[in-house]
Amino acid sequence: MALQLGPIVGEVTHSSAKIWFRADAEGTHTCHVFTDSTSPTEVPGSPWQAVVSQPTGHTATVQVALPNADQLYYYDIRGPGGSTILPGGRLSFKNTPAPGTPTSLTFAFVSCHKPFAYDAAKRFLMWDQMEAVFKDKNIRFLLMIGDQIYGDDCFKKVSRGEQPAVEGYREVYQQYWGHASVMKILGRYPTYMIWDDHEIRDGWGSQGGDSEEHTIFKAARQVYHEFQHGHNPMNFGPEAQHYAFGFGQVGFLVLDLRGHRDMSRNMDERPLLGTKQWEDITDWLTNRAQNYRVLFIVCSVPIVHAPPGAADVSPLMDHWSYMKIRPEQEALVRLLFKVMNESDNLRQIVVLGGNVHEGTVAEIRSYLQEHNKRRRIYQFTSSPIANEPVGAYSFFITFGKTVRIDGNDEIIGKILEEFPERNFGLVHVNYDSGADSYRVVFELYREGKSPYTFST
Predict the structure, then answer these.
(1) How far is CA 361 from CA 43, 156, 357, 419, 436, in A?
(2) Where are the domains of the chain?
(3) Contacts of 54 (CB under 8 A, 6+ apart)
(4) CA 102 to chain centre
(5) Angstrom distance (rounded) from CA 115 to CA 107
(6) Peptide bond just before 47 cis, omega within 30 deg
(7) If you average pLDDT over residues 209-230, what whole number do you get?
(8) If DSSP states are collapsed to H, E and C, what string results for the chain?
(9) How large a percentage of the chain has pLDDT more than 90?
(10) Can you give the pLDDT at residue 6?
């Protein structure tokens, strides 16, 4: 028995963690958790069993119990014979503070991992830089918010009958993730993922015939669950791909912008988010978001990017300002402002985006009287980590940097800064105990450039 891919530390809480791996053969494996790098003494309940089988592509996710919050733990994965399958021995990760704990936090976010767009010497340059920065900045977790693989060639082969769909997508994951530079991060830092179009095919959901009933979509979704979503939180149910989680007094709501996307539906049927997801996130934002002081909305495609005039022209129909999904853009933004202004506890909402192959800073500003308490929502975008960036040319030159959210110019988005290099983003949520307040600082690490910093 040998490790084929992984391990990946997924969702962590103050009392548990999910650990994922892919082995080369079937069998019952065990996950052992320790509080020391060398001690033979395991935490209560350890080891936990994980059954690796062919129907799940030889992947397995095990959920382990952790005795204490906000502590460093070490883990090992052993095969059926009792020997470790981790080449370098035990790995470590840190779990979260108890819910509601006031504390500072630094996390990272990336999107668009296509290393084969570069020659071998440069493919993982930004991943290697990330590893060094993570150690220095005390990163607590990583968000991978779309295009963790590029399955376009697989989609074409399956469509031509040249390749079985499920096995084809599994091979793509193995190819894109099976590199030490990637696994050094994912095995040590809790990582939360959400898919975007390239986990299926470029522009999925924006073309005729794209729907949840498509055979190839079902295969791509199955493999997405095997490799990504199986180690995410599932607090909206096992079928939902949107989810939420917290870190002390900081909350995260992760939207699924691909699983329900179907432009054949009428606008009142929510062709982007779907009615079930919209109901879930509306309820969560209305009844749960007030538990947090700072809230991040995670979107594989940023809410503010392409102006309406640009988004209505193919191939930019993936954007929120495309004519058929513009009502959902406005409805979500209005809901976010409403929740933030009606809450005594929630002080800031920040959107995190990916997909667009350039880093940006944007703001959404409301001029409505009912939003006079808190008028701004900021948005940070990190893209791409390992793909070709947009380069020197940007359609902002042609279409401008202003995105009108509603028809009366009462809510307006604006791109403040743009960065056309490969990049990864860090977010610092700094807690001031004396003032009992939080400040959010965005750092964008760019290939060949000094980091850029923006403070809300």
Answers:
(1) 43, 35, 13, 9, 26
(2) 1-95, 97-455
(3) 26
(4) 24
(5) 22
(6) yes
(7) 95
(8) CCEEEEEEEEEECCCEEEEEEEECCCEEEEEEEECCCCCCCECCCCCEEEEECHHHCCEEEEEEECCCCCCEEEEEEECCCCCECCCCCCEEEECCCCCCCCCCEEEEEECCECHHHCCCCCCCHHHHHHHHHHHHHCCCCEEECCCCCCCHHHHHHHHCCCCCHHHHHHHHHHHHHCCHHHHHHHCCCCEEECCCHHHCCCCCCCCCCCCCCCHHHHHHHHHHHHHCHHHCCCCCCCCCCCEEEEECCEEEEECCCCCCCCCCCCHHHCCCCCHHHHHHHHHHHHHCHHHCCEEEEECCCCCCCCCHHHHCCCCCCCCCCCCCCHHHHHHHHHHHHHHHHHCCCCCEEEEEECCCCCEEEEEEEECCHHHCCCCEEEEEECCCCECCCCCCCCCHHHHCCEEECCCCCCEEEEEEEEECCCEEEEEEEEEECCCCEEEEEEEEEECCCCCEEEEC
(9) 91
(10) 96
pLDDT in tens, 381-438: 999 999 999 876 566 655 678 999 998 899 999 999 999 999 999 999 999 999 999 9
pLDDT digits (tens, 9 = 90+) for 307-358: 887 888 767 789 999 999 999 999 999 999 999 999 999 999 999 999 999 9
Average pLDDT over the chain, rounded to whole? 95
- Tokens representing 76 are 């090992």
pLDDT for the residue numbered 392? 61
Tens-place pLDDT, residues 181-209 = 999 999 999 999 999 999 999 999 998 88
Give the pLDDT confidence of 1-40 residue by residue, as tens digits: 799 999 999 999 999 999 999 999 999 999 999 999 999 9
CATH topology of domain 97-455: Purple Acid Phosphatase; chain A, domain 2 (3.60.21)
Quote the Cα angle for 406-408-411, to 5°: 50
CB 224 within 8 A of CB 195: yes
Q: Pick the closest to residue 331 from 271, 388, 278, 403 (CA basis).
A: 278
Say which CATH architecture domain 1-95 belongs to: Sandwich (2.60)
